[in-house]
Amino acid sequence: MRQQYGLSQEKLAAIAGVSQQSLSKYERLETEPDFKTMIAFADYFGTTVDFLIGHEVEPSAQRNAEDKISQRERDLIEKFRELSRGDKKRIEAAMEAYLAK
Fold first, then answer.
1. Cα–Cα distance between 19 and 12 in angstroms, integer?
2. Cα dihedral across residues 15, 18, 24, 26: positive or negative
3. Same domain, yes or no, for 54 and 87?
4. Are residues 55 and 77 in the same domain?
5. Which letter, b or e, does each residue of 65-93 get, where b requires 16 or more Cβ atoms within 10 Å of its Cβ?
6. Predicted TM-score (pTM) of this structure
7. What is the Cα–Cα distance from 22 to 24, expressed in whole angstroms?
8. Distance, CA of 57 to CA of 90 (rounded, Å)
9. Does one domain contain both 63 and 79?
10. Per-residue pLDDT for the chain (101 aa), expressed as one digit of tens each?
């Protein structure tokens, strides 16, 4: 999934709070992530731990292939979260005005 989303090992490792070396070992099946790390992966990718460990065929009943968020969208969300409350309100108002056209 990391590669499908166009993420580097470093980026996904930072998101999950693990080292790049640990992530590399997970991908090479040399070691397994702990449950907290699995939850972080599932949350980021919008799926379930069951899917990640192979117990579900579909990534998530709530999200299908058309609903995946692109890396650009994720980057914008991260930047939005860093804004002040006032800036967020202004952007939300601008988006609502634009969509109301």
1. 9
2. negative
3. no
4. no
5. eeeeeeeeebeeeeeeeeeeeeeeeeeee
6. 0.56
7. 5
8. 41
9. no
10. 888 888 899 999 998 999 999 999 999 999 999 999 999 998 888 888 988 888 866 655 444 445 567 778 888 888 898 999 999 999 999 999 999 98
